[in-house]
Amino acid sequence: MSNSYLRYICDCAREGMLIIPTDTDLPLTLYTVFSSSVVLPPAGLPVLVDDIWQIGTWGRETYNRPGRALDRVVEATAKRLAELGLTKAQIGLVGDATSAPYWAGLAESLPGSRFEKAQGIVDRMQRRRSKAEQAVVRAAAQLACIGMQAAYHVIRPGVTDHEIYAAFTFAQMARGGETGKATRSGSTPTAPTAASPTAMWCDRER
């Protein structure tokens, strides 16, 4: 699954592969990779998932470390599906274009299984937002506005980009938001001129 689908289904803020068995007595299993979130405060554990595995860190594609995270995720997922007796089964796939390498790896690892795209199930659920979902979107927009107001308040000659970013992050996280992103904002000659602040609402206890 790509992050957008994982975020919607189980509120997972990382990339990874989520196995959802059709048997209700079997747990959901999530295989993911970690990055700086091991050191920095994570967005929180995924909901509904009891079996969570961080099977490694990002490899050469991101941090120039040995190995590829994609291979590790595919290997762990294929092993789990085999343990469930699904080496010859019909498996639904939920994801977008970024998930294609994972699906290709699974198809190669489990040649006896049949894979069908199933993201339409989730897409239909997202066409009409519930009242609770609408409230979350409004809260996230408000947090982004609060963060930008805090950034505007501290901007003056001599203030560094880091100090501006700190003001933005503190303002929205102190009010219940998750880790903010304003990394495309900059005021130095080599920094990007565009800004894309984002904020995410979280009502879970830390």
- The ordered string of helix (H) and strand (E) elements is HEEEHEHEHHH
Net shape: elongated
Strand content: 5-15%
Could you give a short account of the major beta sheet? Answer: 3 strands, mixed
Spans with pLDDT under 50 lasting ≥5 residues? Answer: 182-188, 190-206
Between the first and last Cα atoms, what is the distance in angstroms? 25 Å
Structural domains: how many: 2
Rounded to an integer in angstroms, the radius of gyration calculated over CA atoms is: 20 Å
CATH fold node name of the largest domain:
Creatine Amidinohydrolase, Chain A, domain 1
Query: Mind telling me the CATH class of the largest domain?
Result: Alpha Beta
Approximately how much helix is present in the residues?
25-40%
* Class inferred from helices and paired strands: alpha/beta
Task: State the strand order across the main sheet.
Answer: 1-2-3
How many individual β-strands? 5
Mean of residue pLDDT values: 79
Number of helices: 6
CATH architecture of the largest domain: 3-Layer(aba) Sandwich
Keywords: Coiled coil
InterPro entries: Creatin/AminoP/Spt16_N (IPR029149), Creatinase/aminopeptidase-like (IPR036005)
Coiled coil: 115-142
Region (Disordered): 178-206
